Each structure stands twice: as structure tokens, then as C-alpha cells.
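Database export, one record per block. Field names are fixed; values are copied verbatim from the stored entry.
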Amino acid sequence: MEDTENIFVKLKDRGSVFENKQLLDPRFLPSHLPHREEQLTSIAKYWIEALNNVTPTDITIYGKTGTGKTATAKIAMNQLKEISLNEDVFIRTEYIRCTDYTTENQVIVRLCQQLGRDVPSRGWTRGEVLNAFRDIFKKNAFGKNMILIVVLDEIDILLKNDGDGLLFTLTRTDNVSILSISNHVEFKKYIGTRVKSSLRDKEMVFPPYGAQQLIDILSERAKLSFKEDTLEDDVIPYCAALAAKIEGDARYALDLLRTTGELADENQSDTVTVSFVDEAKDRIEHDKITDVIVSLPAQQQRVLEAILKLTQKKEEIISGKLYDAYEEISRGDSVSYRRIFDFVNELETLGIISTNTVSRGRGKGRTNIITLQCDTNVLKDALSS
């Protein structure tokens, strides 16, 4: 019997256009973030108070997916931590992704654990958890009070799921500063008056990246991630142009460039060509849309079906027209008009649609225009799968 060649050895010897593919992962945190210097400086101007033993003001960051919100906040955290080591202060910065920790208790327990307290994830009462958390703020062995900066990413997810109890607790705890990150300006509708009065946050908006800015971002990453002379000159500008059409999403641009390189490897090509970009776009969109849509509740799928129907008719999609199309598809099994707005917000968060508020002129008010952000054929296939 002949020995079977190890498949991994065979694939490993194929070669690759990549030098270090990990640098194109959207989760990779670079030391420098092009075109976000202004936003980084703004955060630093608030947080510098901590170096004077003053608790910084709260901050809220808004922006579409892929506009550098999380990366900028994390770079600010790292730089503050670095400089604070040489100062006579006791500062801690902690990051919480609210898609992973979706209740007040889960977040407080996680913060205790990150700050060195042995608090179990289950079994303790809310009062016991809060006492353990607030006990951390007693003076340390050197007589210093701790200043804690908490970054709450995708905070709207937690607020929808659990209300504003977490913000109430944190704003009522001395020496805590909150930086909230959200894709939606409207997330504060989930915050009650008592918490809003304590939050008093400074708001910052991260605008979408333009095509040239995305070129700069991709070029900087590509120098380190691809082998020399493997990229055709037009690949990066084309990836940037496609991403600029999708709300200036840098995550999508990076994913597109990485997938383009992977396709070159699969085809055993020594050169990454523009033709691979189109194939990568189709693969990413199909995989993403299909995975998301099959997991959506039936009512949200019907809303998407209504948006698809109106898009194919080349009609301007406003709320009233969308609801009429949705009711027709639902055939009596429909939700309220108000609930449709929640569905639209959730679909926008997923990147499947976008909304844009336009003025109709004096006396006519403002209207939300809904636009599909994926290929109609891909969406049609996903809805029928």
C-alpha cells in the first residue's frame, strides 16, 4: 500500500501572494490609523484629564460600520495606558463588546474580573456584584484612587436588551468615565431622563471614509501583508471604490482585498489581478447576505422582501410605501407600523440596507429614504433559500 501524501504539506508548498495575511483582518489593530488623527486627538483631549487625577467626561461616538470607531478608541486606550505608567496616577481602561455581554450584571461581573476581582459569572446577587465592583475603587496601597475608563462598544445592543440600568450604575459610581460606541444616533431613545442627566456626554461623529482615504488605508496594510510586486496597480483603487459605495466601510474594503488575495492563491496565480476583485465581491456578498438572512425572523425577511420588490420596480422607498408592500406580502400576518422602524434599524445595523433623511422643502417635513445595500440577485437567492 502506497503512502498517502499529507494534504497539508501539498497545500503548504503551493506558495502564496501573502507575506502576512493577518494584517488584513479587520480585527487587527494597527499602530497608526490613517484619516482618524482628528478623532483620536479629540478623545485624547478629554481623557488627558485622567493624568491630572480628574475623572474625564463621558464620550459618545457615532458612525456607520467600518468608520474606525472601535480601532480609534482602542488606540487611545493603549496610548493612555502607555503614558500613565510614567505618571503619578492610577488609571485603568477596559473594553466591553456589548454583543458579548448583553446585560448590566454580565458587564459588571466582566469588569470585576478584568480588574482582578474573583467574581463568579453566576451565583451572586446583583447587590453582591455591585458591592464587589464598588469596593475596587477604594484607595490602593499607594493611597491613589483608581480612575476607570470603560469603553462600551455597540452599546445600543445592550440598551435594547436590558435597558439603561448599566449606565445608571456606572454614572452613579465615582471615578468612572464612559466611552459609548454606537452605529445609530437614535440609540439614546433607550435611555431614561434620570440617566441622561448624569451622562452629560460629549458627542463625536465618525464620517464614512472616501475612496481616496480607503486607498490610503489599503495601501498601508498591503505593503506589509502582500509579497512585493504581487498586486496589480488597479486592485487597491478598485477595492476602495467598491467599498466607498457601501457607506465608506473600511472593514469591507479590507475583507475584499484579503479575499481577492485568497482567490489568487486558490488559482495558483503569482499576481493579484482586478478580475479576482469582482469574484471576491460576489463571494463576500453572497456568503454574508445568505448567512444573515437565513437567521432572520420571518417578519424581518418579509420586510426585506418588500424592499427587494420596491427596488426592482425602481421606486423610491419611504416608510409608508414600504409598509404597504410589507402588508401585501404578509397577507394578514403583519406587525404594527411602528415595529417596522425597529426592523429597518436592525437591518441597517447588519449593513443590508441604509437610510438617509432628506428634507421635502418648507412645510413638507423630512422623510427617510431606504436603500438596498446588496445585489438584488444575491438577496433574492438568499430569501428563497
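Remark 1: The radius of gyration is 24 Å.
Remark 2: DSSP finds 16 helices and seven strands in the chain.
End of record.
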